Amino acid sequence: MHKPLLIALCAACGPAWAQTPATNPMPDGSHDMYVGLGVRSAPRWDGSAQRKVSALPVLQVQWSNGLFVSGLSAGIHLSDDPTFEYGPLLAVQPGRDESGSGRAADGVGLSLLGPVPEPLRRNAVRATRLEGMDTIGTRLQGGVFANVYLTPRWRVTSSVLVGGGSDRGGARLDLGVQRLAVALGAEHRVALSAGVGIVNRKLNATWFGVTPDEAARSRFDAYAPGGGLQDARVGVRWNWAWSPSWMLTSDLEVRRLLGSAAASPLVERPANVTVSTAIAYRF
Amino acid sequence: MRAPHPLAASFALLLAAAPAAVRAQMQPGEWVSYRDAYRAMVQFEKYGGPKNLLQSQLQVQARDHAALGEGAQLTLSGKASQLNMPLDALGRTVFPLQKAAYDENAALVLNRKGIPFMLRPQVTIAPRADGHYDAADLRVACIQALGFVRYVDASQRARQCAGVRFVFPKKDLAGVRLRREGGSEQALPIASGVAFAGDADDDFPVVTWRFGPGTERAQIVTYDAPLAIVPLFE
Question: ipTM of the assembly?
Answer without folding.
Answer: 0.85
